[in-house]
Amino acid sequence: MQTRRQALKKSAVVAGLLASTGLFPQFAFAAYNTAAFEAKNIQDALKALGAGAPVESKDITVTGPDIAENGAVVPLGVSTTLAGVKSMLIMVEKNPASLTALFHMTDSVEPSFSTRAKMGQSSDVYAIALMGDGKVLFAKKEVKVTLGGCGG
Amino acid sequence: MADPMRIRAQAAGDKTTVRVLMAHEMEGGQRKDAAGKIVPAWYIQEVTATHNGKTVLTAEWGPAVSKNPFLQFVVKGAKAGDKIAVNWKDNKGDTRSDEATVS
Amino acid sequence: MRMTKTLSLIAMLSLAGTAAWAQKSAVQSIEEYRLMLQDGNPADLFEAKGEALWKQKRGPKNASLEQCDLGKGPGVFKGAFVELPRFFADTNRVQDMESRLLTCMETLQGLNAAEIAKTPFGRGEQNNVTALATWLAAESKDKKFNLSQSHAQEKVFYEVGKRLFFQRGGAHDFSCASCHGQDNTRIRLQDLPNLTKNPGDGVGFAAWPAYRVSNGQMWGMQQRLNDCYRQQRFPYPGFGSDATIALGVYLGVNSKGSVSIAPAIKR
Asked: Percentages helix, strand, coil for chain A, rounded to the nearest 5?
């Protein structure tokens, strides 16, 4: 994991990034973050998004089944009651690439999103909120999969 | 052009729940075909939603989102009769745009 | 209310003395997963396509299917699905939804029914038949099965379907009954309904057409039967064949009174 110094350094980077247009595509779509979607694990995905070390939070909720009968379609949701969210992420730790989806907030939507994802095997699923103040908060849940959903 | 999306937008007080079904293969790029070759990745990368023309949501997706993707989100301040439009763009550059009226 | 329930549960727990009562079983978890999938069924996409196809002028005759008689009169589609298969005087045979669609596609639109029947699932016109069947099933959703057994042919088909259901053969010496002939059977975590009797609302015959999440495909009853035969290592009797229709009659009549949930969503 990261040292405190590294975490603080990251926060500065995050603050700098947030100040630029990188993470706030309000009208024109910012470039698709390929690096984040190709990252093989959660830490690398967060790094590619310019986010710091994630902290577990009871204010973030991840929803999903305890067991998915088929990994091809697993209903997953992320939500939070907190204000000041910039974006919400769904990550599946053991998937070939951890980042599944990234939702950019505006004032007109609630920080609550559901979709369905493919899971290659039983894994922890993370709901992560990138906050406006640079904090990175998460909740996780284990989802067991009885049949993998990546290769058929 | 891809098949149309199914969009349902239901208002309850100040919150409108929007449920979208998109017709898309969402090929992850992990599968092999009968000849043993990898089936190339083909998936929606960008999704945007507007309310009466104003962008309310932008999202980026990876290949792990399921085939014929489902998306649910909640719009604030919409009322019956308003228009919710959703559009997507995939990694090949194909796009699709559909609209629904809030009920 | 809830307090009393919790207290009695605690009482039960202490009496039972085991922690197993408090844990969710795997079967319960799977049930929850299936419920989660109900809202936002991709079958919706096929329904939309099917409805458009019903109204669209197509084929050499450049006509729509809006005059198609599915058993309740030309153009009547609401409630038709839960009365099929049934006997049709104009073709002098018992037909199910999918074979009847082929009849209409040929007589009204001039398309070649035999060619469509030979087309593999998932290709060409077969996709249109599937979409149409999905929409038509949706137009009977939540209605109860009520197949007719008044015509002599309908009765014959029931008996033929029953015979076929129990007929063993193929490399594994399987019959439909091998999997679906008794209660309390399952393969891994998949429950297998007993189809020799009414399996209940939304089960078996009452759950197809369905969207299968495992392959992201929309399957009608014809494809479901095709796959059953494949699993038994039998050759497929053919799309819209008397054999598959007879099985449909057997299953459908057994399901009388149960509620159709088609188009459903399945593993």
From this structure: 20, 40, 45
Q: Does residue C19 have a pLDDT over 80?
A: no
**Dist CA C45 CA C47 (whole Å):** 5
Tell me the catalytic residues of C: 228
Helix C242-254 with C221-231: angle, nearest 10 deg: 100
Q: Output phi, psi for C150, to 5 deg.
A: -90, -30
**What are the tens digits of pLDDT across the range C218-257?**
999 999 998 899 888 888 899 999 999 999 999 999 999 9
Return the number of CB contacts < 8 Å for A and B.
111
3-class secondary structure per residue, chain B: CCCCCEEEEEEECCEEEEEEECCCCCECCCCECCCCCECCCECEEEEEEEECCEEEEEEEECCCECCCCEEEEEEECCCCCCEEEEEEEECCCCEEEEEEECC
Question: Do residue C29 and residue A65 have CB atoms under 8 angstroms apart?
Answer: yes
- Taking CB atoms and an 8 Å limit, are A150 and B57 in contact across chains? no
- Choose among C36, C190, C267: nearest Cβ to A65: C36
Q: Domain C42-266 is of which CATH architecture?
A: Orthogonal Bundle (1.10)
Domains of chain A: 4-145 (2.60.40.2470)
pTM over 0.90: no
